[in-house]
Amino acid sequence: MARQHRRWVLLVLSGLAVFSSACLNYPRDNQTVTSKATPVSFEGWYFNAPNVEIKPYVKNNVTNTFDAIPHAPILTGTTPYVDNAGDSWYSFSAPDVIIPAASQYWSAGAGRTLLARVKVVGPGNQEIVSFDASPDTDACIETQLQTGGSAVMTTCKSSMSPAVRLVVPCGTSGSDCCLSGSACDFGKNCQAGLCSSSCGAQGQGCCNTTPACATGNVCTGGSCVACTAKGASCSSSAQCCNGLTCSGGVCKTPCTPGAACTVPGKQGVCAKGQISCTGLDPVCTQVVNPKPDTNCDGIDDDCDGSKDEDYVSHTCDTTPDSCQSGFTVQGKSACHSGSESCQSQENVDYCDTCGSPACGECGATPCTPGVTKCVPGYVCKMGATLGCGISDSSTACWPIDGGHCNGCGPSKTCWKPADVTVGGVCK
From CA 243, how far away is CA 239, in angstroms rounded? Predict the structure, then answer.
């Protein structure tokens, strides 16, 4: 870019290489301002353009455009300052710019703050570069100005450029009213945009916050008056302190008779209670008494903190895993996590003589393909050498090594497939 066409501008006063020390720049992004009414200083340098008008603008959050801030004309000076690169700069200064207080120019910031976004525009509607408020930015400006002012515009500018955010604390006594949450901290109400109207104390007006009045007071007729304590006479709940209710002409803790409750210090079913409302405070009365915890129901019936620990097992009928449907054996009941089941006895070999009920019925002798009734995975022992194939889909007879099923003995059916060895392979 040709030097004669550049209009780089430092928004706010920058240190130039011709000076022995750098000056601060105002305003910077995220600069804190005491209040909306606080004058803001707009100072800076404009490149190679003496006696031209500089205009401050503020963002209108309703129209999403920038409006000019009313102010007398702000002009650049006529005396140039020349940096180390030979560039001429002309200063401008307006220490008394007031940002309009109208609501469209302010938004809620982080925490209890307000934000206004402002920028500066030079001749030809050219927006001026802005900078962050930080020591790193100051160091960057100082370094770049040692070799020539123009580089500072791209190297050191704010990520928000050309706008800067002015931050105004809000909500405290005497400050501007906040736009989010409570407009003012407790003890002050928002009046004419400021947290200036005292409230909440006894004899003062009620606050527009929760609580409306200080401890020991209630809001009655728009004023904070001393409240009625628990046990004292009352004519309405509005007189009672701290959320108490007026019941039977006395301030009491709110109570719903018959409501379910948990009895303090009790466990299991003994913790079940019911609310009674005979006194000033609700009382939770135990309604279930302990009993032996012998059932498998996942409930602590004896109120000792454990469930079903005294469960009593009993005999039951069950079908062992993989046995033919309808075949049952006697087992014992068991309780796991409140659920009862019937389990066959461990380490019992359910074998029976061929032809008697077992895990599968035997067919004709010898086993006949397509006629046998062995359950899948089991054999029907017909002698020392023949048996139903346990994995062959043709149900042909297979020789069984050793003439028995791992201890079941000859002429017996086997309950477990692993008990059978066919052709040397465990089936």
Answer: 10
Distance CA 390, CA 119 (A): 89
Question: What is the mean pLDDT of the segment spanning 49-59?
Answer: 94
What was the pLDDT predicted at 30? 92
What HEC string does 181-211 produce? CCCCCCCEEEECCEEEEECCCCCCECCCCCC
Tens of pLDDT, residue by residue over 261-314, are 999 999 999 999 999 998 999 999 999 999 999 989 999 999 999 999 999 999
In three state form, how does the secondary structure of the chain look?
Answer: CCHHHCCCEECCCCCCCCCCCCCCCCCCECEECCCCCCCEEEEEEEECCCCCEEEEEEEECCCCEEEECCCCCEECCCCCEECCCCCEEEEEEEEEECCCCCHHHCEECCCCEEEEEEEEEEHHHEECECCECCHHHHHHHHHHHCCCHHHHHHHCCCCCCCCEEEEEEECCCCCECCCCCCCCCCCEEEECCEEEEECCCCCCECCCCCCCCCCCEEEECCEEEECECCCCECCCHHHECCCCEEECCEEECCCCCCCEEECCCCCHHHHEEEEECCCCCCEEEECCCCCCCCCCCCCCCCCCCCCCCCCCCCEEEECCCCCCCCCCEEEEEEEECCEEEEEECCCCCCCEECCCCCCCCCCCCCCCCCCCCCCCCCCCCCCCCCCECCCCCCCCECCEHHHCCCCCCCCEECCCHHHCEECCEEC
| CA dihedral sign of residues 165, 169, 175, 180 | positive
Question: Residue 368 corresponds to which tokens in the numbers above?
Answer: 């006949």
Confidence of residue 400 (pLDDT cuts 50, 70, 90): very low
In contact, 293 and 302? CB cutoff 8 Å: yes
Amino acid (one-letter) located at 365: T
Report how far Cα 318 is from the mean position of its chain's Cα atoms. Answer: 50
Most confident of 10-14, 128-132, 347-351: 128-132
Query: What distance lies between CA 321 and its chain's CA centroid?
Result: 47
pTM as predicted: 0.56
Q: How many Cβ atoms from other residues are within 10 Å of residue 316's Cβ?
A: 16
> Residue 221: which residues within 8 A CB-CB, separation 6 or more?
none
Taking 90 as the threshold, does the pLDDT of residue 71 lie above it? yes
User: d(Cα 75, Cα 73) in Å, to the nearest integer?
Assistant: 6
